[in-house]
Records
---
Amino acid sequence: MTMDRNEILKQLNKIFIDVLDDEEIVISESTSANDVEEWDSLNHIMLVVEIENHFGIKFKSNAILSWKNVGEMMDTILEN
Amino acid sequence: MKFKVSDSFYAEYVVNAQIHQLFLGISNDHNPLHTDKEFAVSKGFKGKVMHGNILNCFLSHFIGEGLPQNNVIIHSQTIQFKNPVYLDDKLQFQAKVDQIIKSVNVVIFKYEFKNESLKSVARGNIQIGLV
């Protein structure tokens, strides 16, 4: 993975906008599900599906469960 | 998980008079295209056009009862209608596992309905979760 964190965050923001169907969403590394109304349990699954497909990676279930915010999600993306 | 990529599933569905009547009742969609043969023929169809969303009922049956495991829930589905379905048409249904996302127990199918002339009448994707 050669992308830097800013580039990953930019790409994640676009995925969040598409999946959550909200053009106004702006995420940061500290953003969590509590900060985004549409980020519910089903949309969380949809986000994981789109993120895996977009970056061509496979997450482990325990990694997903450990995420507390977007930054930790990015850490896992960078580890893949 | 009892699925692997490229697994295929098959079924046959018939849009018979009972199903048509039941769907008219559930949907309350009595558009003449679905209920008036003369009207439908005047618009270039061979007969009354069956509601495309009857196929969504068949998809519900397939996911709910046609898979090797029943701990399933539909997350999302798409459908594109390609050709009309008429009363008593026998439809061949095929669904193929296109993708498995193990981390979140998700299976994505591509599916297609074909009529007896093997013309595609509808196709799309269904994403299910294993609960």
---
Amino acid sequence: MSDNMTVDCRGLACPQPVLNTKDALQGAASPFLVIVDNEAACTNVSRFAESQGARVSVAQQGGEFHLTIQPGQEARASAAPPIACARTDTSAKNLAVYISSEGMGRGDEELGAILMAAFLDTLSHFKGQISHAIFVNAGVRLAVQGSPVLEQIRHLEQIGAEVLVCGTCLNHFSIRDKLAVGRVSNMYAIIETLSKAGRIIRP
Amino acid sequence: MLAELPMTNHPDLLVGPATADDAGVVRVRDDLALIQTVDFFTPIVDDPRTFGRIAAANSLSDVFAMGGTPLTAMNIVCFPRKSLPLEVLRDVLLGGLDVIRQAEALLVGGHSVEDPELKYGLSVTGIVHPDRVVTNARARPGDRLILTKPLGTGVLATAIKAGMATPEALAEAVGWMTTLNRDAAEAMQEVGVHACTDITGFGLLGHALEMASASRVIIELCASLVPLIPGARDLASMGMIPAGSFANRKFCDRAVTVEDGVDPLLVDLLADAQTSGGLLMAVAGDRAEALHAALERRRVPHPEIGCVSSARAGRITLLP
């Protein structure tokens, strides 16, 4: 242990211990020690390290907590800046769903509605993987009062997806005040979301 | 500590310190009661005007939580005159005024002191009919619980300090913190509820526990139904929970039963100290649909997050 780096965070107010741990993790290859003097910091530092793919073991010594952080593969590879850190997933939450029509597929409207409902239903099995569900053009009709698939879209929110609904489109159809799920978005935010997604799927 | 002070008692004191409610209420006439509340704190965002708006919305909230309407407000300011330019104070006060005007209340003055740390908030007087005061002490078994704003502003404030909050998450948190609880309170008074409290520094768990204790009931909350600000959960899992929220959780520990299957991360989020949070309302089962409709009409979110299960010493059961 004496060869390894020690990050002493005693006396530091949150979120400094996490920030110091974050700096230490960047590019770290071997285990290092983080010392904190309160349980809150111990929990925060452990959670942060684990979210970056590291393994953590904690030893309590009197009023102090000694955390041994073993960097994982992702932590070594990642030199991403803070904002990307909060967004780039080390988990699999990288699917963005792009819905630009009211029905799924072409050829028969009734079938299209049935397929769209089934599509949204099936998405619920991808718990924790869907980052966003984006609705544009006639797709926004699915997100307003009276839509037959409101429950499915609400469920997507519950399993972790952000639901974005194009404001220009809502205005075009004069249904902005009937939005029943998700939040109003714009072209810039939609393009930004799509550009940062790992994969984009569309019905 | 408040318990050590001699008890305030008076026949016209409708709500005093005894029930740890949101504000004090005193009857001045058969048809008029005054609501008094005060709150101020240090900045949680960098922009002074936004900070002013947030602090004002936060201070006004208690009046709405009691079912009243704000009448007058006074500024409370602590300002480091020597280290910050006066323009910063001007912008903070302009932000406060933005929201006071939105609440249709009158800014009638204020007081400032020199202080190494900037702090801002309001002292607010509101009015309400004595028979329509909504306290946190009359929730009953069978009541359903509705929460009008998502949680996560404490975690987001920490993430902002750490530079780890995305611009969207920040914008969303600011949006919620500067939204007045007025529309929610109007819906509440239109339909009638048994109890209400606003969610602020003690987190949902802390304030729900206050309601459970004052009403002498057991409250059941479904952790997965509690709305969260997008991004808050991720940030919590990256260690962005402020020390105060941990303290809330520890304080609630002895009175909260956490059932199997509840993610410990969610428990911390439910204890997360909120700034300018939403209203938690306890509504009778047969009035719940009417309340949902009244909130929907005013575009206020209205997820149902639990219920009051039985009449017994104040406790919370947290279900998955």
---
Amino acid sequence: MKKNKHYFGKFFMILSLIFFYLPIVFVVLFSFNSSKSLTAFKGFSLKWYEKIFTSSNMMEALTTTVLVAIVATFVSTIVGTLAAVGLSKSKKIVRDLVLYINDFPIMNPEIVTAIGLMLFFVTLGIERGLGTMMLAHIAFCIPYVILSIMPKIRSLDPNLADAAMDLGASPWQALTKVIVPEIAPGIFSGALIAFTMSFDDFVISYFVTGRGVKNLSIMIYTMSKRVNPTINAVSSLIVAVITAGLIIVNIMPIVKEKSEAKRRKKAEEAGLDPDNIEPDNDGMKKLMAAAIIAVVGVIAIIFHGNGKGEFEGQVLHIYMPGEYLGETTISDFENATGAKVVVDEFDSNEQMYIKVANGDKYDLLIPSDYMVERLMQEERLQPLDQSKLKCWDDILTDCTNLAYDPGNVYSVPYMWGTVGICYDKTKVPIEDLEKDGFGIFNDPKYKNQLYLYDSERDEFMVALKYLGYSMNTDDPEELKEAYEWLLEVAENMGAEIVTDEIIDNMAQGRLPLGLMYSGDATYVLAENEDMGYFMPESGTNIWVDAMVIPENAENTELAYEFINYISSYDAAYGISEYVGYTSPNEEVFDEMSSEGGLFYGLDSYVPRSGNPKDEVFHYNEETRKIISEYWSKVKIAASNAK
Amino acid sequence: MKRFSQLAMPYIVWCVVLLLLPMLLIAFYSVTDDGNGIVSFSLTLRHFTKFFTDPDFLLILWRSLKIAFKTTVICVVLAYPVAYFISSNDDKTRNMLILIITLPTWINMLVRTYAWVGLLSNDGLISRIFSALGIGGGELLYTEGAVLLGMVYNLIPFMILQINTSLCKMDKSLLEAASDLGANGFQTFWRVTFPLSLPGVISGISLVFLPAVSSFFIPKLLGGGKYFLIGNVIENQFITVGEWNFGSAISIIMAAVMMLSMYLVRKIEKVNAQGDRD
């Protein structure tokens, strides 16, 4: 009986170990995969690691993570220790109250702590960035330090400090020579918890961070939309650091014991009293020194200049959509100018707006047409100094002087295109598309077969166009009708509402239908020849993403330099080639789309002209509010439909 | 004596400014209107009314509680045998096993959750094993099951630890007494061991249930934008919609619901304990 039970237990134990470690082994294994696939191992390669170490963004995230973790651990351990000692001698009511508040970050859901701190920083007008991230990390680390020290203090003789002072120790000596050594194990484990909590934190960092400051978790989160083995490499590094840390911590006492025994033995051999010899701290000191040198070294590598150039030592902060640059776009610019470029990425124009409106300062933004108009109306942009722009001769007239910014006073086109339906030609007959147009998203035949794109504007465009209205309508009735149509889709069609995940998923042919930006479709079509791109006759959205300089930009000269650079042939070609979006640079556009060009024959690369029903978005605050409210309800309805 | 108590002063100030004040700010935002500032505002309860009068929001809250409940039940059922096995070993093995179990929890949740994306995807390891065994078929990733799996995976170690601790604390002579008095193995477990380990189960529940209710990146990564939970609604309000007041109100509601459910769990435990004594 007993034996049987044991086997059962062992079996369960082994199963759970497989369960716990399988994903981790998997992550580490695929970080060495030579192909991009996350499911098939094609061969050994270190290229994803190389990518980390050659990408300045990654290295910076790594430094930020380590730096914040070290500072947070250091400060929270000291403050936490002092507070714990102090509280133990405080009046009971004070102690209980403080310990109660101290429990907030431990008991509260992380997201609540996170938004609390974010509201705090924003309300007080503190600029979010590295400083706020450190403050936040210290704030949630101290409670854990206190929590792990308190039990040790409770088990201490309350008269210990008095005894020390009676014997002539100063309070400081009593603290550092008597109390602290007694509670050292608690302090140590508190520091360890603080370090790993800080090193691993995502939720709180995500909400309190500001311009240009990202830790590894935030990097992983923003990259996780596309298949990207670099994430595996970063994750493996995190696994390695944490495992190494834990092993050191767990093995250290054993090693220490051994060396202690050795020392005693030696002392005895030399005929000395082993208790009277100062313990040997050299090893520890060396280790500390090595750690400090390593950190300083990494920081120095990160912050060293990028060679000589006109803008050496200057920094350009850009806020733009994710996955929207060529492979070497940024590094080429950095090499040419000597400046450093820090790119932050957003998922949606709305997300960008919230950050900018709450005080994050960027030198250059790349919003879409209607958002350019909104920023203009709210006077958040500066008119461009046309004498500094050398790009207008190279840019297609199709995407200049459009209604959102007549005369291009504020904006220079970055990319342009349409919105359409990406479909699997082997599964969706073109006749269905021609018959239904955007209505195909509500065709029961394709239930559970489609993606919607998580963009309120574009989804309302689909609905309004399908219903035969203008996508710029401000008629509440028409908007309501569109909303009801989308609600019907959400409730009946089992659609997945996604953002950039759609790209790799459609390239792999996971589902046969999806609403997509033409540029993403070009990438998908080039990857998978079964895929097609369709624009309904009822009209679609012609959009332009454009570069603008915010009113509070700090380095406008560099921003102009960047705009000119992006508009040049080389840079424009590099981006268009890599991301598949249509370049506004005339030469690049012609080359890519003409015979022999990279995207020759792909319907999605050449935006449609001549359909009078195609429109460009306008900004209207009232309709935005209505649409935004409606769209969040559609999304909720879609998820409730399951 | 007095001098030492002054050591806590800086932290008391810190507590008030960085821990208490942010919570008060959430409460303040939740009952005010217009703008994200404290200079001009008007009091209102409309954010709460909006939440409670919209069946969609209530449904999401309900679904979040449901999935957290499922996660908790699965965690208890799976964690118990593992914890029981660990506690039945001698000290040295036990510490080793605990180290092995806790090691992955030190690695951040995002990384561990992302790991499942590759494993669960269409031609990934798990679905290959499934189809080789001739079961399943159909999608694994981007389903409710995937979200549930992600939650259990991330949270079950806490449950194991808590149950294990309470099992280890148990006075082993009670088991001998039970069997001396004629209880069989099952009776001993059900009437002695299990009730005595309940405090561990309860604290395990709070460590699993609460994070499961509020999680937002697990449903996002493994649910593929199909499984909106209350955490996602809050994130959405703050990051893309920009209705911070409404977002704060939802956070307050969520926190209140969590506190209430934990209160109920504790209450039930107390009633049970008293029932046993009677």
